[in-house]
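Customer ticket, subject: "Can you confirm the structure for DUF3667 domain-containing protein?"

Message body: Hello, I'm evaluating your service for our small team and ran a test protein. I'd like someone to confirm that this is what the system normally returns, since I don't have a reference to compare against.
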Amino acid sequence: MEATCRNCETAYPKHYNYCPNCSQKSNLHRLTFHDIVHEAIHYFTHADKGFFQLIRDLFTKRGLVAYEYINGKRKKYFPPLNFFLIIVAIFVFVATMGTPQEKENVLKTHPEINQIANPVDRAQTIAVYERMDKATRFLSKYSNLMAMCSLPLSALVFWLFYRRAKYNYVEHLVAGIYMTGICILVYAVVIMPLSFWLGFKGRPAIVLFFVLQLLYFAVFYYGFLQKSTKAQFAKALGVSFVNLALWATLSSSLVRFYIISGFGGLLT
Ligand SMILES: [Zn+2]
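Agent reply: Thanks for trying us out. I re-ran your input and got the following:
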């Protein structure tokens, strides 16, 4: 006796509980409201592969999560990109709750501009100060959004320093998604609310985020690559530092270039 899968139309023996091709259940009943809600809740809370379990595992097992996921335990963990997209959504939500910094009146904060006689020079100086203000306001709110853009570069750095680890670029990228994701989550739900509450904006919050990433990335890679000696941990810490320093240099040069040039009028 054969049954036909209603999802992928593969024929299989009737006593099977799941389709051997696509793993859909063989015994389906009409959809109910309960099914939809159950499915959604399940997605986040499933005992071993849910979103919340992944967060717990990223704290308790750290790099072992990436090790196991990459080496075959694909169903055990919440998928990396889905995880990252949810983290981005949480981050953007929290970031919009903070009170926006007000746009500064450049002529008031920098009265010396009024002494510039040449009107062309004056307009240019005003534009530079305005872009500086804009960049400061953008960065204090969305500096972590830039951490997301750091993923391709950081995977490259870890791949270069750990070429002998036999992981390809994409596998380093997956490890990077898990470790950057959890750091952004900690920033969004702990550091950012604390900074709103205690009123330390901008720099201290970013420094805290950097220290968090520096230490977590090192511990994460130490576990991910199954290392066990102090020297290997020191190397992980060093690579983590190089990675962050490179990113900080690159992004701050980009910001500086924007302030000076305005990207040739591309962004004003
Ligand atoms: Zn099927």
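A couple of notes from the result: The mean pLDDT is 87. The longest helix spans residues 230-261. Feel free to reply with more questions.
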